Fold this protein.
Amino acid sequence: MTANETSSFSVSITNNTGRKINPSLITNISTPILNDTATDRLSLEAGETKTIKRDIGPQDIDLERFIFVRAWVHG
């Protein structure tokens, strides 16, 4: 990624149960100093899928050439 380039990543969560669920999506994106952390509280009906998109850019580059992303669903 160059100093003028931006991109994005997305995470899709599907409720494969037969009832409504309320999970949280937690994402960590690298930065040169501290991780940028976000928590999205979701509500998914049975069979529903939601996609969360995050933008990334030069401000997220760590170790001069990498952007690290970690995302997980909790609850």
Summary: The mean pLDDT is 93.
